[in-house]
């Protein structure tokens, strides 16, 4: 059977009769079903990037000159974007990198977008199938490009902290008992109170430097409790 038509909201589909060929050759995308009430929506705030640095006025003209030795602090929202609504801009403005090295497969884009720069990571699902049965899923946050030091004054450093929320703004604003089973967005696994754990390589940290001008990293991150994520740079 082939799908003959679907409702505008995707809630129902009408099957075409046997032998009907109404789908042309080539790649096609289909959306089956509707998102739950607690599913993150595109541009939901799903976390933050906090950063302290001396900003170079050549990147941000409103910043003080480097010679003033003034440190600026920023807290930038992390925007969840669903497949089909990814930010794919590369150099569409000054230092816009969101579309750089998109993941081959992903279930969400984590986009940081500010006036001087933008960049994105991707939420990837990994699992194995045994005997036709899907095993437990492992979710990794994969940033292939981290231009967090693109606006530094020469010879200075920065302090950077990523945080990811278990509930997006949309989920948190749902009225009580209407959240579709109480589910939240996928977040960092909680660590025991007062402890920290360093992840590297295939165990969950995938930070790759492939472009010139990026900070050196050791391809690891540390998750602490209370919840903080520190990228190994």
Characterization of this structure:
The protein is mainly β and 233 residues long. It folds into 2 domains: 1-34, no CATH class; 40-172 and 196-231, no CATH class. Helix content is 2%, strand content 33%. It has 1 helix and 14 strands; from the N terminus they run ββββββββββαββββ. The strands form 4 sheets. A 7-stranded mixed β-sheet has the order 10-3-4-5-6-9-12, with no helix packed on it. β1 and β2 form a beta hairpin. The chain is globular, with a radius of gyration of 21 Å. The termini are far apart. 19% of the residues are buried. The model has no long low-confidence stretch (mean pLDDT 75).
Question: Keywords, please?
Answer:
three-stranded antiparallel sheet; 14 strands; mainly beta; 1 helix; about 230 residues; globular; seven-stranded mixed sheet
